Amino acid sequence: MAAIETLEIISPGIMTSVQDLGRYGYGRFGVAPSGALDSFALRIANLLVGNSEDQACLETMLLGPGIKVLTDVVIAVTGGNLQPSRNKQPIEMWRSHAFKKDDILSFGNTVNGFRAYIAVAGGIGVPRVMGSRSTNLPSVLGGHHGRTLKKEDILACNEPRGPMSDTGRVFNPDWIPQYSDKWKLRVVPGPQDDHFPDGSWDTFFDGTYTMSQDSDRTGIRLEGPEIRCKPDVEASIVSEGVIAGSIQIPGDGRPIIILGETVTGGYRKIATVISADLPLLGQIKPGDGIQFEALSLDEAHLALQEMEERINNFKRKIN
Amino acid sequence: MPHDTPIFRLMGDRSLLVELGNEISPSVNQRVQELFVALDMHKVDGVKDLVPSYRSLLVIYDPLLISASDLEHKIDGLYQGLDHAQLPAPRTIEIPIVYGGEQGPDLESVAQYHHITPQEVIEYHTRPTYRVYMIGFTPGYPYLGEVPDAISTPRRETPRILVPKGSVGIALKQTGIYSVDSPGGWQIIGWTPVNLFDPQAQPPSLLMMGDRVRFQAISAQEASRWQP
Description:
The complex is a heterodimer of chains A (319) and B (228). With 319 residues, chain A is α+β, with helices and mostly antiparallel strands.
């Protein structure tokens, strides 16, 4: 597929990187998945511009980038409302727009959520590394030279699958996630659920936690009631594989929700965020309140099927 | 001792932690390796990734393609058949290390901790044939064991913000090699010119779980002439 120079970064924003649905199959080599933190927003953004849902997009945070468009192309912005605009005129999110050569995509202040996703018809054309275009920032690999974008970076996009007629696609407004500053995250207890006494479970599920400023792409650190493990278990566990959404309880008792940049760890985990709520982890911002609710595996599966059904309905609508 | 039957722990609704033993031991770790190889060769539909570690195998799956109970059933079956599985003979990889100096800033303090000389630390560290128990933490980072008791040293009280790629560290009975620049708390006693991870190579990691590693002391001058 021919790659066409499509985007020029005029200002990089706080943290803008190339992400797709993540790098799987390399955990045995110590390679973490990385990938879009809000995978739901990325998938919809891709579908809006006529891409397959797993193409690479730009993920940006809090203060978005300024981007000059180098060729006529279809663009959609989804996720948190970072006030996207074209040539300083606000554009609607969760909808595809035709951009002309020399148009400028820029962002304002964050109205809600934390991260936005910019999909371009054809998908961001960086080379795949170990099967994925996602940027692994801690290990400096994948994406655009393994790093966040800088001023004057030029990004090529692959040739779009469809013509410019993909503009004007709109995601069903009822299905757009509502981002507030109070979150309820549903979890499945475990894997080390037997390491915590009854009192700690009450603390965990009754308490309200606050996302700490110290959080980053590797983990959401929480402030709030401390969680104690049973007195007869050791301070750390033997290192084992972990996944995004696992809630670690380190020695100080303050929970950390692991995101996609960690492959193994030696802290016990009280519970794991369900797949259907995983995309929300990309939209919680420092200072937001978080409560946890326990679900059974079957309930978690139902929630996931519900989310997938929405995506499938949308796919049927646009095809 | 490895468990007779695996213990399955839920890590959310899309991964299963399969525990095969309680402790860090070669026999438990070998069992993990056997199950990992068997499951990898079996190519179960819906399995997205496998992360083997000291005593467990994390199986990441797509819950829309396979259920946790079906997966448990398959893994149970494979585990019961493992006695017949033959792992290939382990590879032994020699890794040259420059001990001490600027690139091994904790060599002296490790020696002082055990009331021995830095040279004795080097002799103890190069003596064993180590087992690669797992690759983790960062891409290509090997967890090797076991370090002789005579030089087994706890982690630094304050981790370093940046440990350069190639640094060789000790944490109690474990020794490891930093595969990329990263933060770290292990006692750094040396450095290797060997590259442990190349994202463009297939496989990208020099070492795999189950490999054997021997360390060889070289001079800084030899390291500068070292060719991969």
